[in-house]
Design brief:
Shape: rod-shaped
CATH architecture of one domain: 2-Layer Sandwich
Number of helices: 5
Structural class: alpha+beta
Strand content: 15-25%
CATH superfamily of one domain: Band 7 domain
Oligomer: single chain
Order of helices and strands: HEEEHHHHE
Largest sheet: 4 strands, antiparallel
CATH topology of one domain: Tetrahydropterin Synthase, Chain A
Helix content: 40-55%
CATH class of one domain: Alpha Beta
């Protein structure tokens, strides 16, 4: 006679339930990782490339036009010149305004020692521009700061 003994085996969980739990956990981890990656990539990084430096606006100093007699055989030749100085330092504008009579005198003396033939050519005008720059760049007093003239620009130029 065979006797059956009751066994205390517990029913096993089905394979489908375990598979569903594992897939749900993996899906939850993938979604959490994707959300974290999106959040981190969408934030602006403070250590990114620095913005390009701002280019300072040029500082121009316009002078009243000059009309000056030139050196010539007949004494009837003159030049009419309008000048604008481009400054490399914006602080120099106040100093130039304060010393305007001396600045104009330097330019007048320079122009009055020119012959008309020197000023007609492009090379002559470029040379004059360099001479005016060198003259205006000089300090107004001994030991004073230079004026930092970057460029001399002609706005009017008539040789008669």
């Amino acid at each position: 006679m065979a006797t059956t003994t009751p066994t205390t085996e517990q029913p096993r969980a089905s394979g489908k339930n375990t598979l569903i739990i594992i897939l749900a956990a993996v899906l939850l981890l993938v979604c959490a990782g994707g959300g974290a990656a999106f959040w981190m990539l969408s934030k602006q990084k403070p250590g990114g490339p620095p913005p390009p430096p701002a280019i300072p606006a040029p500082v121009f100093f316009t002078l009243e036009p000059f009309t000056v007699n030139l050196l010539s055989d007949d004494g009837q030749r003159y030049v009419h010149v309008g000048l604008t100085l481009r400054l490399s330092n914006p602080d120099g504008e106040a100093r130039l305004t304060e010393h305007m009579p001396e600045l104009r005198s330097r330019i007048l003396l320079l122009l009055s020692n020119k012959h008309p033939e020197e000023l007609i050519t492009l090379d002559g005008k470029q040379k004059l521009s360099a001479e005016i720059k060198a003259s205006c760049d000089q300090p107004f007093s001994a030991g004073g700061p230079p004026n930092h003239i970057a460029e001399v620009l002609f706005t009017e130029f008539v040789v008669q």
